[in-house]
Structure formats: structure tokens, C-alpha cells
Amino acid sequence: MNGKVKDDYERPIISLRISITNRCNVNCIYCHHDGMLESSSEMTSDEIYEICRIAKKIGVEKIRLSGGEPLVRKDIVEIVQKVASLDFKDISITTNGIFLDKYAKDLKDAGLDRINVSLDTLNEETYKNIVGKNALQRVKDGIIESCAVGLYPVKINMVVMNNINNDEIMDMFEFTKEHGVILQLIEIIESESCDDNDFNSMYHYPLADFEKYLAEIADEIKIREFMQDRKKYFIDGGEIEVVHPVDNTNFCKNCTRLRITPEGQIKPCLLRNDNLVPLVDFIRKGSADEELVDIFIKGIHNREPYYKEEN
Ligand code: SAM
């Protein structure tokens, strides 16, 4: 089978985000763990390769490795190497950046195209309060090293929180401009794993108003088609992207992404865990490609926009 598969809402499946571990070396106060349930099992690099091989057959073009923290896996370079051998248009990683100074070059050599580094603040104390440890300088070094070895683009994922870092957006933008990096602002999503139940109501910072400001000062605005209709603002030689899924019907309408959980299930939506489809068990049993493709298609048919326009 070749060509792109569409879900029941006419959304083609273009990208696959694979959570390769639930383990993490930090404990961010807001973390939604990529919407994953707790688990201790992980897929091998060969199983990840097999999932990607089948994904390619149904038309997936882009692979993103995430977690947990993907760089805590000792075989991360081998995983990238194996996935890269399948010749996707694009392979990327989302990381907290703490091990990037160590891995950036090897990852690039293994076939990684680009990288997103989560960094919410440039203030050491705020960083420690959010992440739970002192690693800001290492993350900054990792970002600079990623640029130096030719990963492109490098993006900074900044989750914007009211009263924590919302007043730092433009400072972060200056930092990204200085290093030729793109700033991606992320609206915080309610997370059940937050210790404090009031956290989201206290710290939710709606990015819609900030986007109005960006629109006023931007030299140019572009819309990322097939990427949840995210807007890109070009300002003074730099670039800011805004990701705000909360209550955003356009975000869901233009979502082309399927997810895989660390224990190898297809996860049709970031915000749901009641429609997962087991996959890696069938790879372990030695199922034929046709059956694995059918399982993927079942997962795709389970997709439904989380936020829909009511009419
Ligand atoms: N450990 C890696 C990292 O830190 O980038 C990958 C996993 S992390 C869950 C993936 C992305 O989700 C990060 O950019 C993080 O900032 C974002 N994220 C985590 N919890 C979030 C939340 N409650 N709302 C919005 N974004 C969140």
C-alpha cells in the first residue's frame, strides 16, 4: 500500500510522534507527559524501526521522537540511525536539552534533521523553580551546539505561564534571534499530573491576546498548512510560532499527527487515552505487514477532532 491515508474527517496523516520513553531526568511543574499514561515498558530500537517502516507505507512523511525525555535512552543515536535509514522527509526530536551538548553531533551524524528544545526561561532561579534542577547553562550550550553541528531549524519550545514567565517572551525572542533559532510559544494545557489542582486556573496564559500584539508588530505572517494551522510571525529578522490547542477548533481541524505511546500503542489524540490501539504486540508476534497496516488504519479511524465546531 502506498499513498497518504486520511481519517474520517478528511485529515491526511503526515506525521508520527513516537514517545520512546516515559522516563525523564527533570520534573517540570506543568508537564502533561505528552498525554501518556504511566508505564514502565519501552520499545526496542528495532520495534521503533518497524513502526516507522509501516508508517511510511501508509504515507507518513515525518517522524518526531519525544517522551519522557528521549535523550535519557542510551540507544538514542542508534534509534535515530535506524529511523533515518527509512528515508523520511524529516526526523526531529523534542528534548529538554540537558544532554544535547553531549549528543547533538552524534544525532546529526545519525540522520537527525532538526530539534525542538524546551526552555521556558533564561532566569536561573525561575528555571530551577519550573524544572526542579539547575541546568540552564547546559541547555543553552546544547542549543548553541545544535546550531553549530547543523541541526536546522532549532526551535525553542516555551510554555507560557501567567506570573511565571509571561513577561519574558520578548527576552527569549532576543535570545533566539541572536542564535538563529525559532521561538515557539506554547499555550499551557491543563494537566492532571500537576500537583496543585489550581495550577491551570492560576497560571493559564491565553496566547490569543499576545498573538494580536504579534500581528501588529510582525513584518510578515504565514500559516503552517497541515501543521494545525499554526501561525508564524516574522519580526525584525526573527521568527515566532504560536501553538495554542486549547478550545481551538482550527488546531484540531488541521491536525495531521498520529502518536505512539512508549509501550507501543497508537494514540490518536494528545488529549485522549480512551481510544488507544495496541500495535507493538503484533510486531512482537511477527504479524504480516498487511495486518500491521490494518492496525494503523484502525488507529486512524479512531481519530476525532477534540475541539469541533458545533453546528
Ligand atoms: N522531555 C522532552 C521535552 O522536555 O521537550 C519531551 C517531552 S515534553 C512532554 C514535550 C513538550 O510538551 C515540551 O515542549 C513541553 O514544554 C510541552 N508540555 C509539557 N506539558 C505541557 C502542558 N501542560 N502544556 C503545554 N505544553 C506542555
Task: Describe it.
- With 311 residues, the protein is an alpha/beta fold.
- It is 33% helix and 19% strand.
- A twelve-stranded mixed beta sheet has the order 7-8-9-6-5-4-3-2-1-10-11-12.
- The longest helix is centred in the N-terminal third of the chain and has 13 residues, at 45-57.
- The model has no long low-confidence stretch (mean pLDDT 92).
- The site of S-adenosylmethionine (SAM) has 19 residues, from strand 3 and strand 5.
- Hetero compounds: S-adenosylmethionine
Average of the residue pLDDT scores = 92
**Helix count, DSSP H or I runs of 4 or more residues:** 11
In order across it, which strands form the biggest sheet?
7-8-9-6-5-4-3-2-1-10-11-12
In total, the number of strands is 12
Supply database-style keywords.
311 residues; alpha/beta; 12-stranded mixed sheet; 11 helices; 12 strands; globular; binds S-adenosylmethionine
